[in-house]
Design goal:
The protein folds into 3 domains: 4-115 and 260-356, FAD/NAD(P)-binding domain; 119-257, FAD/NAD(P)-binding domain (3-Layer(bba) Sandwich); 367-447, Arc Repressor Mutant, subunit A (Orthogonal Bundle). Helix content is 35%, strand content 21%. It is built from 14 helices and 21 strands. It has helices at 14-24, 50-54, 59-72, 133-143, 158-169, 183-193, 197-212, 264-268, 309-327, 332-359, 384-392, 398-405, 418-428, 449-453; strands spanning 4-10, 30-33, 77-79, 83-88, 92-97, 100-111, 115-117, 130-132, 151-155, 176-179, 217-219, 221-228, 232-239, 245-249, 252-256, 259-261, 273-275, 282-284, 297-299, 375-377, 382-383. Strands 1, 2, 3, 4, 5, 6 and 19 form a 7-stranded mixed sheet that branches. It has a 5-stranded parallel sheet with strand order 8-15-9-10-11.
Amino acid sequence: MNDTYDLIVIGAGPAGAEAALAAASTGMTVVLIDEGPAPGGQVWRAPRTALAKDKPTETDRARGDDLRARLAASSVDMLPRAQVWDVRAGFSVSCISPQGARVLSAARLVLATGATERIFPFEGWTMPGVFGLAAATVLIKSEGALPGRDIVVAGQGPLLIAVAAKALALGLRPRAIIDRAGYGDWARALIGFANVPSMALQGARWMAQIRLAGIPMHRHCEVIKSSGGDGLSGVTIRSLTTGATTEIAADTLYIGNGLAPGDDIHRLLGLAQQPDRLRGGYKTLCDADRRSSLGGLYVAGDGAGIHGALPSAVQGRLAGLAAALDHGALGAARHDAEARPLRRKLARYIRFADASCRLMQFPVTALDGVTEATIICRCEDVTAGDIQHAMEDKARDMNQLKHFTRLGMGPCQGKMCSMNAACLLRRQADLPPGDLRLTPRAPIRPIEMEQLIGTFDYADIPVPKPAPL
């Protein structure tokens, strides 16, 4: 591999892979960096075990296989299992892979950094036996299996239905499905779903399978407690309509409340962003061809705003074509001919994505039931009570909260807890609207010093000449 390229792409999901392929097809030298062992991202993830490989090939698997085959046949250099820990304008990308520490340089950069899962904290959400819905999809796609026998699937959005249906296909019949959305929410979403008939049909099949299996579905309800000693033994749910509570025996809970952009590099580089009222969090501003506010930098996929795999793939191709146009590797006429139908397709996909995101909206009242003992930051065991005490000590922004409590200082670097903590801070301290986020700093991933310095002895240390007297 080289150290200098025409284009660096961070993230090998649908967005990043398509961006790399589009740019490489014009003759640009491209490197594609990803933390995973193979391209595809979370949704089009490659199977890892023989059990997963032997499962019937579904649409997502077929799309992932096609993507990986096209990358293998292309000129794109792949850097898998690589953690990017610093990015600087210009652009230089510092990363660590099994081959050691690397600093790659390019005049242009595509960020396709994906999303992180969001879970509303409740009593017992960190105990063994509680998994995220996104984690469940990773296990299904890569391992071909799910842990648990008596499972409950809970949360909101299409991923809830997908995990329940795929659990059924694995021979696991969920004891219940707990959906935060109601019938009316799903009915309103149908208009948007109709823009992508193939996806709408897949969703209808999943619902039909769930109904035929006779799985109880509790709509407009939420999980408020997980019970158990060394592991989960049951969950308590509450109706958002009546307030009535119900207990369900279970040894495994799969739960998720939508997604948030993985935008730490966007913020590290100071890209222009604005609040995303539909999806929660922030979205990175860009033009129709995915150019960001920083020259030479393009954004695509869920890291710039949650939309899903199909829109992300189209965004990635637009970003790759724009990078090639700006680099001089692609003429304006060919660019317009290729980009115009992609923009039309993206508009249709976005209407579908918006309908999905409305089902995953983060209501302002979502954390009203959090008690002082509820853990907010699971890496550092910071509770809602700790946050309250920090506010009593005059913490008024997320950096102060981090300083007072260590919230966000664990392995996830605040990805799981910062949005929930910001909601508590804004509500309890009665703060005006504004940006309540942790300041991004390198390293953006936890790394070991040994990974950076490698092995050496004293003879390898350069000794400068003494300064003249």
